[in-house]
Specification:
The chain is mostly helical and 219 residues long. It has three domains: 43 residues; 81 residues, no CATH class; 76 residues, no CATH class. The longest helix is centred in the N-terminal third of the chain and has 23 residues. The relative contact order is 0.06.
Length: 219
């Protein structure tokens, strides 16, 4: 009793507790910290955004199996609400998982869908990692009436770092009367954007599409 009273008195004077008493509390503190961390990890993932977007139960469960993060759930919900199918939502996540990157392209996919770009085309763009900052150019191209095939070819050449006519140039050439097949041939041939003005001038001087292809492509 005297020891306890002595300790209490020392505590009242602001003296440090004996070392052996501090050590006695350490295991308990560690256990509490580990328990708190475990509870945090066990917190269920909130998938209410996916439910609200119309995604089916099976697809939601498969996404959980891919360890989607709360941020990714928000991005996927955007895509699903824009009209992407459950199956293609899963494909997108699998593509991003294979590249080791988090899925953050909800706005890009939604924007391309709203412009009329097909789901299959968007999946291919994801595989080429072309849903980044330049997706707005691809959206504008489709809104200008350029085909999915042209959009994909431009994206493919961008991904490879190869020369290609830009979206705005292709739109001007289309307005000058060049057919989609001719524009696709020019794109596939790697005609650089610096040639766009020359092609347009040649067309305005009455050149046929075949003459344009012979002059500006290697075919």
């Amino acid at each position: 009793m005297g020891h306890i009273l002595g300790y209490d008195a020392a505590s009242a004077r602001g003296e440090r507790a004996p070392r052996h008493l501090c050590c006695a509390f350490l295991p308990a503190l560690v256990a509490v910290a580990l328990l708190a961390a475990g509870c945090q990890r066990m917190k269920p993932l909130d998938t209410s955004q996916l439910d609200s977007s119309g995604m089916g139960y099976d697809a939601v469960e498969q996404l959980k199996g891919l360890n989607v993060t709360p941020a990714e759930i928000g991005e996927i919900a955007k895509v699903r609400q824009a009209g992407f199918s459950d199956a293609d939502c899963l494909k997108l996540i699998q593509i991003y998982r294979a590249s080791g990157k988090p899925f953050d392209a909800g706005d890009a996919v939604s924007g391309l869908l709203q412009a009329g770009v097909g789901e299959g085309t968007i999946i291919q763009l994801a595989q080429m990692q072309q849903l980044g900052l330049d997706w707005g150019e691809l959206q504008a191209m489709h809104l200008a009436g350029l085909s999915d095939a042209i959009v994909l070819e431009v994206a493919r050449r961008h991904a490879a770092g190869e020369p290609v006519l830009g979206g705005a140039s292709l739109a001007r050439l289309k307005n000058a009367g060049l057919r989609q097949t001719t524009l696709l041939d020019l794109t596939r041939s790697g005609v650089p954007d610096s040639e766009a003005s020359a092609i347009l001038a040649y067309r305005r001087h009455g050149a046929s599409e075949n003459e344009i292809l012979r002059r500006f492509t290697k075919s």
